[in-house]
Design a protein that fits this description.
The protein is of the alpha/beta class. The relative contact order is 0.14. It has one domain: Divalent-metal-dependent TIM barrel enzymes (TIM Barrel, Alpha-Beta Barrel). It is built from 10 helices and 8 strands. The mean pLDDT is 96.
């Protein structure tokens, strides 16, 4: 269990350069956020592996570049496109396995999708079965303006799938959806496998940890009491800082509380 930093924090810096920034700063845990289809090629993955091995990094999870299109690929009524998306997720699971990552983070379907909750869960399980061929699990993230941004939909997934569904809980997304992250922790502790962490204030819903009013010491203690044994990955947007050094200062600050 440790705090890490997502390569997405450095966007639009290229993925491999972002990974190296994290590694050179002495951070040992990360999530790799892919930003282009060309980054799925073996030669590019070899480049990431070289950085990972050279700096002894732990990659907890990967985030597909196709997040914005997942509703279109997986939760429409066009079977051929679903199969193409499934092949893409298989490729991500191969890459995740090479990097040693356990999870793929999914945004999932939009609220205007044609799938019932049962059909959505069925397709989620098909994705999971495909990625588990490489020992990798798909996690549903609670993203605003997506179906999983609603607590009621997350509850529906649990009601249908039980412990077969895993969640990535993003603190800033909770705030954007209008609910306290602790509502999710209390209700879904058995299903939460991963956290994206950030801070917030009345002026901004996305700040570097330590820049707002969120009590991370209490948060870490509480999640552990609820049985969480995974990692906590800092994920913020580039407007949350001016210099990369601020990200690493935030990392050092809250790492003391884990």
């Amino acid at each position: 269990m440790s705090v890490g930093i997502s390569t997405s924090c450095f966007y639009p810096l290229e993925t491999e350069l972002s990974l190296e920034e994290i590694a050179k700063a002495g951070v040992k845990t990360t999530e790799v956020f892919f930003n282009a289809q060309c980054e799925l090629k073996p030669a590019f993955v070899d480049m990431l592996l070289e950085i990972k091995n050279r700096y002894n990094l732990k990659v907890t999870s990967v985030h597909p570049t196709m997040s914005l299109a997942e509703s279109f690929f997986f939760f429409s009524n066009y079977e051929r496109r679903f199969r193409e998306g499934l092949d893409s997720y298989r490729r991500y699971s191969e890459i995740a396995a090479e990097l040693g990552a356990k999870y793929i983070i999914m945004h999932g379907g939009k609220p205007n999708g044609i799938c019932s909750d049962e059909e959505y869960c069925e397709r989620y399980m098909i994705l999971n079965e495909a990625t588990k061929e490489n020992g990798v699990t798909v996690l549903q993230e609670n993203v605003v303006l997506y179906r999983a941004g609603e607590i009621e939909f997350l509850q529906s997934m649990v009601d249908i799938l039980g412990k077969d569904v895993g969640f990535c809980i993003d603190l800033k997304q909770s705030i954007r959806c209008g609910y306290n992250p602790y509502e999710l922790i209390d209700r879904f502790s058995d299903n939460i496998k991963h956290y994206h962490i950030s801070d917030h204030s009345t002026a901004s819903d996305c700040l570097l940890p330590g820049r707002g009013g969120f009590d991370f010491e209490t948060f870490f203690k509480y999640t552990k009491q609820k049985g969480y044994t995974g990692d906590y990955i800092i994920e913020v947007y580039s407007n949350a800082y001016k210099q990369y050094s601020e990200i690493f200062d935030s990392y050092k600050l809250i790492s003391k509380n884990t």
